[in-house]
Structures are given as structure tokens and as C-alpha cells.
Amino acid sequence: MDLISYAELAVMLVNSPDRLAGLGGLRALLEESGRAGQAARLGRGDLAALRELREELVAVFEAASDGDERQVVDRLNALLRRHPVHPQISDHDGEAWHMHLTEGGRFSDQYIVGAVMGLAAIVTGLGADRLGLCRARPCRRAYLDTSSNRSRRYCSERCASRANVAAYRARKKNGRAESGR
């Protein structure tokens, strides 16, 4: 079972607050993420549940970014208690038998269980420091650090480049200011 793809559901939700304004935005988000088949089953209850989950996941990523591992674990454990996992074997879409974390319930139940279980697997398998918020100001988008050397600090290459250019310019400016004394 690929739990990183489940954890990516959490990142996608945290990084898409504008998409939770209505069902149309949520459907578009799911379609862009390759989950178009699930989008047809959405209801208002799903939207409300995912909005609530997003707020809780933002707090998880903020705690991780602050280095507060205990807070990350406590928040994930609270979510796991509220949203228990019901694993099932599935063979949908012509794929071989594989595990899914839940098959029943509303769409949001499935999304929540997958996202929370995916993050829990990352934290227990790789460490809470693998969850982060982009260090490029003012971005603060969430990311998963799956690099082999724990080096990720930005949500995208674009933010990394922007931050590096800003740091370079600041060094150059400080260098000129110091040499002009």
C-alpha cells in the first residue's frame, strides 16, 4: 500500500483553501488530482467535513514546521480516534488486488481516513520533520519531504528559486553596504 499517495491528499487539501468555497471548486480539485471518478459522489456534508479537516491539518503542518513532534502526534492521534481506519482489499479499474484504507461511507470519510493515515505513516516511518511548510515568504504551503537527505524546505522549485534569488540579492546588497563604509 502506497501511504505516501494518501499523505499527499492531506497536502493537497491544506494547499487548496480556495477550492473549498463550494462543491464546484472541490470537484475541480479532485479532477486535477486524478480523482475525477470520486468527484461525482460529493455532497454538501463532504465539503463541510473537508473544510474542518483542512483546519486540523494546517495545525499539524504548523506544529511540524515548528519542530513540535509531540503536538504533531497528539493531533494525528486525535484525528485517528475520530476517523477509524477500515482497510479493505480492492481490485477496481482492472488493477490487481490491493489495499484501500476504507471503501464505505461518504466521500469525505474516505478522504479523511486516507489523508490522516498517510500522514501517520509518514510520521511513524520517517519522522515528523518530513512534514513542513514552505519557508519562502509569504507562501507557507505544505509539503512532504520524501528526499533521502531530509533537505526539502520549499513547496516547489519556484519557491526555492525565488527564496534563493532573494537571499542572493540580500547578500549582494549587504556586501555593497559594508564595502561602502
Structure description:
There is one protein chain. With 181 residues, this protein is mainly α. The protein has helices spanning 3-14, 23-32, 36-39, 44-65, 69-82, 107-125, 157-179, and strands at residues 88-90, 98-100, 131-133, 142-144. Helix 1 crosses helix 4 (44-65), helix 1 crosses helix 6 and helix 4 (44-65) packs antiparallel against helix 5 (69-82).
Condensed summary:
The protein has helices at 3-14, 23-32, 36-39, 44-65, 69-82, 107-125, 157-179, and strands at residues 88-90, 98-100, 131-133, 142-144.
Task: Note the topology.
Elements: H1 3-14, H2 23-32, H3 36-39, H4 44-65, H5 69-82, E1 88-90, E2 98-100, H6 107-125, E3 131-133, E4 142-144, H7 157-179
Antiparallel strand pairs: 1-2, 3-4
Number of domains in the coordinates? 1
CATH H-level superfamily: Jann2411-like domain
Main β-sheet, spatial strand arrangement:
1-2
Q: What would you call the structural class?
A: mainly alpha
* Name of the level-1 CATH class: Mainly Alpha
Shape: globular
Helix content: 55-70%
How is the quaternary structure best described? single chain
Question: If helices are DSSP runs of H or I spanning 4 or more residues, what is the number of helices?
Answer: 7
What name does CATH use for the topology? Jann2411-like fold
What characterizes the major β-sheet?
2 strands, antiparallel
